[in-house]
């Protein structure tokens, strides 16, 4: 069997149709969209068309879309930009405990700069507790950030209800939709978000390009100062091929959303069913129903996630332990700890994220490989109690 890629939450391959749209903007149509001559005019119209197409996909106005270098920059901009713009009104910020490091690390930096940060608690499924969130909002709270869907466990948050709560309390609501865009329906006006971020490389677009939606009328500070690009809000020469590619990728993803979601969900469900039935002492993390169609996250008791990841890699199967950004660190996932998992279980967790080019045969091959590896690793593990049976086809725990 060829190599199997089950890490689409980390990044996706560029769709050939997207690449085709991008190519002319590297060579023939290379003008700087800020230039006054015909070369510039050619690319400025491509950037305008891309902005229109992206706005249409998420139900925004083109003037509400600001291009960034990706999800991390968009998240940083939303949080820092709102915190500083509204500092005169209050210096209390809330972000959920399960946000991506782009938010968590930024919030911690702001805490060193005179802001007060509350990390909103989640339940065992990783869902933000609305009652606790409401109690955490104070008169000096200016910003609430809760992601649309979690990158590690796939849990989808009740962002519409959170947006309504924030509106009633008079604070800005931002949602990181990096994992949600192109995967589930996303309309900014339906959600009621003041700001929303996304990143092209999660939906078969190029890396290094993303966007921040900023509701018209909302004033935030700039993050990147420089030229007059992006209506004077974000300096830097526009990455024209990437912008064109992001628009095409989002258009394709939006057009085929239901069909793709149903297909990857069928792979995910096949995987989850087989793992739960055939491998003992496992826990499926994340919300059982309100979850991204492509995500399955499992804790394998008595095993280190990294050993599992490397053993699967040796068999040509690419998965992730925790988020790609924090892998390489030996800290257990902050998301799983916030959901109340004990450290041991959090250490033994692996994320499988499926894509439109995966097949049921690949899922079956991976489950078979996983069964074998789990048995071997548990046999070697000092954590595995001798009296437990490391059966290959056991009953569920
Ligand atoms: N937010 C979430 C939820 C993500 O999953 C990621 C990437 O993994 C990011 C933000 C960062 O996006 P980017 O890689 O475009 O900087």
Q: Rounded to an integer, what's the Rg over CA atoms?
A: 22 Å
Uncertain ranges: 393-397
Query: Distance between termini?
Result: 31 Å
Strand content: 5-15%
What is the multimeric organization of the chains shown?
Answer: single chain
Indicate the mean pLDDT: 95
**Outline:** globular
What structural category characterises the helix and strand content? alpha/beta
Question: What do you see in this structure?
Answer:
About 40% of the residues lie in helices and about 15% in strands. The strands form 3 sheets. A 7-stranded mixed β-sheet has the order 2-8-7-6-5-3-4, with helices on both faces. Strands 9-10-12 form a 3-stranded antiparallel β-sheet. It has a two-stranded parallel ribbon with strand order 1-11. The longest helix is centred in the C-terminal third of the chain and has 22 residues, at about 255-280. It has helices at about 15-20, 40-60, 70-85, 100-110, 130-135, 160-170, 190, 230, 240-255, 255-280, 305-315, 335-340, 345, 360-380; strands at about 5, 65-70, 90-95, 115-120, 140-145, 170-175, 195-200, 210-215, 280-285, 295-300, 315-320, 350-355. Helix 2 (about 40-60) runs parallel beside helix 9 (about 240-255). The chain has about 400 residues and is an alpha/beta fold. The site of pyridoxal-5'-phosphate (PLP) has 15 residues, from helix 3.
């Amino acid at each position: 069997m060829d190599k199997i890629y089950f890490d689409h939450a980390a990044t996706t391959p560029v769709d050939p149709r997207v690449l085709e749209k991008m190519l002319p903007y590297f060579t023939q149509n290379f003008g700087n969209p800020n230039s006054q001559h015909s070369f510039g005019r050619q690319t400025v119209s491509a950037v305008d068309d891309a902005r229109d197409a992206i706005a249409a996909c998420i139900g925004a106005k083109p003037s509400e879309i600001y291009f960034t270098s990706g999800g991390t920059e968009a998240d940083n901009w939303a949080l820092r930009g709102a915190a500083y713009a509204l500092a005169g009104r209050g210096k209390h910020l809330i972000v959920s405990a399960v946000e991506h490091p782009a938010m968590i690390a930024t919030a911690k930096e702001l805490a060193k700069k005179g802001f007060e940060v509350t990390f909103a608690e989640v339940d065992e499924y990783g869902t933000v507790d609305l009652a606790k969130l409401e109690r955490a909002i104070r008169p000096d709270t200016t910003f609430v950030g809760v992601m649309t869907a979690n990158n590690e466990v796939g849990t989808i948050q009740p962002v519409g209800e959170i947006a309504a709560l924030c509106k009633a309390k008079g604070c800005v609501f931002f949602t990181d939709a990096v994992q949600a865009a192109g995967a589930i329906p996303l309309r900014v006006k339906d959600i009621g978000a003041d700001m929303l971020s996304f990143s092209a490389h999660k939906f078969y677009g190029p890396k290094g390009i993303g966007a921040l939606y900023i509701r018209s009328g909302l004033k935030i500070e700039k993050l990147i100062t420089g030229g007059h690009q992006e209506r004077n809000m974000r300096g830097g020469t526009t990455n024209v091929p990437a912008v064109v590619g992001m628009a095409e990728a989002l258009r394709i993803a939006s057009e085929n959303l239901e069909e793709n979601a149903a297909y990857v969900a069928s792979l995910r469900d096949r995987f989850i069913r087989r793992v739960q039935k055939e491998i003992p002492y496992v826990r499926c993390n994340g919300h059982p129903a309100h979850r991204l169609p492509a995500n399955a996250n499992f804790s394998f008791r008595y095993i280190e996630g990294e050993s599992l990841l490397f053993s699967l890699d040796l068999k040509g199967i690419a998965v992730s332990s925790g988020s790609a950004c924090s892998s390489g660190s030996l800290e257990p996932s902050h998301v799983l700890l916030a959901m109340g998992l004990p450290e041991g279980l959090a250490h033994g967790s692996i994320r499988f994220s499926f894509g439109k080019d995966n097949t049921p045969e690949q899922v079956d091959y991976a489950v078979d490989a996983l069964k074998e590896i789990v048995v071997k690793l548990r046999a070697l593990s000092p954590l595995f109690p001798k009296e437990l049976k490391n059966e290959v086809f056991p009953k569920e725990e």
